[in-house]
Specification:
This protein is α/β, with parallel strands linked by helices. The protein is built from 29 helices and 19 strands. The relative contact order is 0.07.
Length: 748
């Protein structure tokens, strides 16, 4: 007996008739999301975008303002924009997709005229920091793939600004998986101001009838003997390096995981100093171990061609002028050279590729109109798989990120979108995707998903599996090499997925007990100070902290300095890494400092970060550069531990200058480019207590510096903003003989 479901569509004044199926769980979730800031956790393929549509339509119908819809990738932005134009009864020109490729001024105009803005978060973050846009009239902010809202990801900054600026804020966050780490989930909840969590799985009663069956198969494969021999030799090289670490006094167990080894590397980097040269040696050895472990991972999970490509890059790096010490040490190892020769002689390809071809051909034979996605972790493997499937006459294309890498061109946004459209139309039957294909692809008829290798991440595993079983029954095949990390990764992802749901329900209960408010108080005090920031600094975390502390930021392309705090105080900021690099190019460093010194009365250099002596630069060179800046140039140096402390220093100085000293904020340029008028203003404003505005007032009144110098106190006091104290100071400065000046104090 067959159960027939009568498909009902959503009836809403702003949603086009017959375009969206009415599902109980989507309406229930949307109802919650209209009342509170809500995190929706829903497996891929169950219609998170439809829930967003319902909330958007209701907010626009009942509230005055605009909607901001954020998504992490450009193809996903375009996809959401197309969906909203297709489903909403809104002028298509009022639904705009923003990207960094659009001119900033045009983006500003689009923002002001649009009702719905769909954008990547980087673009919105930049436009907020540059004061091109504000979020005052945004009545709904949607964060797609919300599990990214941790650390310094732009979602975090935008959410804080939204809650501060918006008159009527509401947040909808959506993800298939926020991860199994409770600290990470709590961070997402706090960063986005979440008040309620709505969770559904494919097994929930109100969801089950809409889910098509997914058959999961895991195919175990034996590693060829030739590849196993290469792996064994690489393992021997790693053991030798662990023994080397023991000889220099660094005890690390050989069975340490990659994640733990990376953490240990960070600890050593923090301890590195000129007094402990063995730390530098240990860091280089650990870098060698990580590179060799990566080679083993390629053998186990990818195969011969991926390993060959990696070895070529490693040797190329070792032979290049800027190659790392670790690469050079590995390349000069006689055993490693034997491994390279043996690898390139090897003919035994990993059987995964043959099994993959078998699975793909079987699926296309069963249904020639099938759509298949093959996921792999590495671009080299994606290229190899595309080549191998092409040889079989299968219409196939790769789908990778935009970034260009060594000998590997990325896919630009238009190319990604075009590829997805061809895949949807059936011109391409197989899409070979790296991680960029895991998030948000809206391809309803994907019949088969192949994991070329398992992933230990529950987030990525859930997203990959969600690519199939949308429009009809789906099939998932996981290729696992026996007795390798493939097996560990697969079972780790299943365990983490179970833990994730347990933690989500715990946090859901926690939020209920907390009441209507979020887990943290997001209100921040306003400082009232203004800071001019060089546009190149907008990407730094410092600017975000400044805004968080309440500073008004004005972005400019500055000729001199990174931050201007008043008419006389400007700051050049360098991270520890920047400063150490600039020591190598002293001419550029001292040229910057000289320009800063010439342009501002009170220049400051901030060096941000720790471990000034961690690099292979002699400590005396570092000390010499610092001494020269402080003594020869007379520029004070402030060292801060991180971006937050830098921002706190900048705020403290700006407040002192602008609020306590009542000084105006003025951009100066290097003396070599000043006009005579600029120079006159600069000279007069350099008098203690006389800022930029007062200097202009004095020059307008007396016209020449000579007349200012000879004017009596009574005449000086006729000028706006010049009181008895400043007039007396000017007279004392202009009339005291130099030989007697040391007997007088002039208050600064």
């Amino acid at each position: 007996m067959v159960d027939y479901i009568i498909v009902q569509t959503i009836n809403h004044p702003l949603i086009k008739e017959g375009v969206v199926e009415r599902r109980r769980y989507q309406i229930a979730i949307a109802s919650t999301a209209l009342l509170k800031n809500t995190l929706v956790v829903l497996p891929t393929g169950l219609g998170k975008t439809v829930i967003a549509l319902l909330v958007i339509a209701s907010r626009l119908l009942n509230e005055s303002g605009k909607v901001l819809f954020l998504a992490p990738t450009k193809p996903l932005v375009e996809q959401h924009a197309r969906f909203l134009r297709r489903t909403l009864k809104i002028d298509e020109n009022k639904i705009v997709a923003l990207s960094g490729e659009i001119d900033p001024e045009k983006r500003k105009k689009l923002w002001n005229t649009a009702r719905i803005i769909v954008s990547t978060p980087q673009v919105v973050e930049n436009d907020i920091l540059a004061n091109r846009i504000n979020l005052e009239d945004v009545i709904l902010a949607i964060f797609d793939e919300a599990h990214r809202a941790v650390g310094n990801y732009p979602y975090v900054f935008i959410a804080k600004e939204y809650r501060k600026q918006a008159k009527n804020p509401l947040i909808l966050a959506m993800t298939a998986s926020p991860g199994s780490d409770i600290e990470r989930i709590l961070e997402v909840v706090e960063n986005l101001g979440i008040e309620e969590i709505e969770i559904r799985t494919e097994w929930d009663e109100d969801v089950r009838q809409y889910v098509h069956e997914k058959k999961i198969e895991w195919i175990k494969i034996e590693m060829p003997e030739e590849l196993a021999r290469v792996r064994k030799k690489l393992e021997e090289l790693i053991k030798l390096r662990f023994k080397k670490l023991q000889r220099i006094g660094i005890e690390i167990p050989e069975n340490i995981s990659k994640k733990e080894l990376l953490s240990f590397q960070e600890v050593l980097q923090a301890e590195a100093s000129s007094d402990r040269p063995e730390i530098f040696e240990a860091l280089s050895v650990i870098a060698e171990i990580l590179k060799l472990q990566h080679a083993i991972e390629l053998i186990e999970t990818q195969g011969l061609e991926a390993l060959k490509s990696y070895l070529k890059r490693l040797m190329k790096e070792a032979n290049s002028r800027g190659g790392s010490k670790a690469s050079k040490n590995i390349a000069n190892d006689p055993i490693f050279r034997e491994i390279v020769v043996e690898t390139f002689k090897c003919k035994a390809e990993h059987p995964k590729i043959e099994k993959l071809k078998e699975v793909v051909k079987e699926q296309l034979k069963k249904n020639s109109d099938s759509r298949i996605i093959v996921f792999t972790n590495y671009r080299d493997s994606a290229e190899m798989i595309v080549d191998e499937l092409s040889k079989e006459g299968i219409p196939v294309s790769r789908f990778v990120g935009q970034a260009d890498r060594l000998d590997d061109r990325g896919m630009k946004q238009k190319e990604q979108i075009k590829t997805l459209e061809r895949f949807e139309r059936g011109e391409i039957k197989v899409l070979v995707a790296t991680s960029v294909g895991e998030e948000g692809l809206d391809i309803p008829a994907t019949d088969l998903v192949v994991f070329y290798e398992p992933v230990p991440s529950e987030i990525r595993a859930i997203q990959r599996k969600g690519r199939t079983g949308r429009g009809r029954e789906g099939r998932i095949v996981v290729l696992i090499t026996k007795d390798t990390r493939d097996e560990g990764y697969y079972y780790a992802s299943l365990r983490k997925e179970r833990i994730m749901y347990e933690k989500l329900y715990e946090i859901k209960e926690m939020l209920k007990k907390k009441g209507q408010r979020t887990l943290v108080d997001f209100t921040k005090p306003q400082t009232g100070v203004k800071i001019i920031v060089d546009s190149r600094e907008l990407k730094s975390e410092v600017v975000k902290y400044l805004r968080d502390l309440g500073a008004f930021i004005e972005s400019k392309s500055l000729e001199v300095a990174d931050y201007i705090l008043s008419d006389r105080v400007a700051v050049e900021r360098k991270t520890t890494e920047d400063f150490l690099n600039s020591i190598i190019d002293k001419e550029r460093l001292f040229s910057q400092i000289l320009k800063l010194k010439n342009a501002y009365m009170r220049p400051i250099l901030i060096i941000e970060g720790n471990n000034l002596y961690k690099r292979a630069i002699h400590p005396n060179a570092v000390r010499g550069a610092i001494a020269s800046i402080a003594i020869d140039f007379g520029v004070p140096i402030i060292q801060t531990s991180d971006a937050k402390e830098t921002a706190e220093f900048l705020i403290a100085i700006a407040r002192r200058e602008q609020e306590e000293r009542d000084r105006e904020i003025v951009e100066h340029v290097a003396k070599t480019k000043r006009t005579l008028r600029d120079e006159m203003e600069y000279v007069v404003s350099s008098i203690s207590g006389v800022g930029g505005v007062t200097a202009k007032n004095l020059l307008k009144h007396f016209q020449t510096i000579e007349r200012i110098a000879t004017a009596k106190e009574e005449e000086l006091m006729k000028v706006p903003k010049v009181g008895k104290k400043i007039a007396s100071r000017i007279r004392k400065l202009m009339t005291t003989p130099y030989d007697l000046a040391h007997l007088h104090e002039l208050e600064l």
